[in-house]
Amino acid sequence: MLLKLTAINAFYGYIQALKNISIEIPAGKIITLLGSNGAGKTSTLKVISGLLKPREGTVEFAGQNLLNLSAEQIVALGVVQSPEGRQIFPELSVNENLLVGAYTRKDKEVPQTLEKVYNYFPKLAERRKQIAGTLSGGEQQMLAIGRALMAKPKLLLLDEPSLGLAPMLVKDIFKIIKDINREGTTILLVEQNAFQALSIADYAYILETGRVVLSGTAQELKNDENVRKAYLGGR
Predict the structure, then answer these.
(1) What is the CATH number of domain 1-78+153-235?
(2) What is the Cα–Cα distance from 161 to 163, expressed in whole angstroms?
(3) Which residue in 68, 75, 157, 162 is a FRET match for 174, CA 20 to 30 A apart?
(4) pLDDT for 161-184, tens place per residue?
(5) CA angle, corner 228, sides to 218 and 86, nearest 5?
(6) Where are the domains of the chain?
(7) In angstroms, what CA-CA distances link 144 with 16, 109, 214, 216?
(8) Which pTM value belongs to this model?
């Protein structure tokens, strides 16, 4: 198992955000976390990334305990997050934003990774010298994912990659996510667009108020009548 969360309880002050969460992510798969706002999806990613330290439970990546590591050390191990809301550096160029993503790397293959990112996102290649703050919302989302890829992740954490995007762009982003996975990167996808997420995922967990209330293969959950009514608009 590449990543394993066991019995995680996490708090913001006195407010409990995660309640006994257990999740497993096998290598090479796309796993999705579904749920409404406030369900605990982003908090789960923060625990994995080292940004929120749980009071109880364990987080293991490739057999290594992550709880005693800093966020930077976790990135260096290969666990990399593309955050909700993009959080690019608006005053830097596209190329400079991407190179920031490689800051933990010590190898000499950064130029090759950069070209690979530009192959995934040809629009970014066209705009590599453009100031990132002038990009469209969809282009900024591509930039945020590309920046995460520059760290050469073994596990890519994607937080709401389709948020605020036009339907055609959503389709493009999910195709690229599938391509990234096909080339060997394991993906944990947090997404409110449940239909699209289940269309590309292998397995899914549904969270409500900080708890896992349902899990199963993506196909099983797509066929579950309660899931269809609650998350897929009855499709």
Answers:
(1) 3.40.50.300
(2) 6
(3) 75
(4) 887 777 878 888 899 899 999 999
(5) 65
(6) 1-78+153-235, 86-152
(7) 29, 20, 30, 29
(8) 0.91
